[in-house]
Amino acid sequence: MTATYTFDVFSSLDGYGAHRGDWGGYWGKQGPELLDHRLALYGGEQRVVLGATTYREFVEFLRSSTEESEVRDSWVTQMRNLPATVVSTTLEGPLDWPDATLERSNAVEVVARLKEESEVPLRSHGSLSMNRALMAAGLVDRVQVTIFPVITGQTGVEPIFRGAADFDLELLESRTLDRHIQELTYQPTLHS
Fold first, then answer.
1. Quick one: which of 52, 140, 173, 183 has the fewest CB in 10 Å?
2. How much is the pTM?
3. What would the mean pLDDT of 174-191 be, rounded to a whole number?
C-alpha cells in the first residue's frame, strides 16, 4: 500500500508563504474555525515530513515564544507530537523535536521510500523547496493551500511555487473557515 502525501501550506492571495510586515501570524486573520480545523487535521495518525529550513524555523519560533503565543496554538503542539521525519544533509542530530528521525539523504528518495513503507498518511507543512521537488517527482498526492484574505505585494516573502514545474490541478475539496479563509485541496498532475 502506498501512503498518501499531502503538501500543506499557508498562503496570501498573491501566493506568498510568509511576510516581513507587521501582520502577525496567520496574517492576523485566524479565527476559531481555522484553529479547530487545523487541530483536527493533525489529530489522526500520520507522519510529518519537514525540510531543514522549516524544521529550523519551527524550533526557533517555539524556543522564542511564550505559552500564550500563537506559535504554540494547539494544532502546532499536536503536529510537534506526531512522529516526524526531517530531511536534511546539513542538520546534525539529536533533533529538538519529540519522535523525530533525521534522514540525511535526498528528499525524493526519502519520501518515495516513506510512501512505500508507511502505514499512515504523510503530511508536510511548509518546506517549500522540498515540496516543489517532490511535486516534480510525482510524489505529492494532495496540495492543500489555506489562503488568507490578504495581498502582500510589498511585504510578501517566500513565493510558494516560484520555480515549480507546471501542474494541472483537480479540485478535491474546498471550504471556507471563519467566513474569509479559503482552504483548497487539489490533486496535482504534472502538465505535459
1. 173
2. 0.94
3. 98
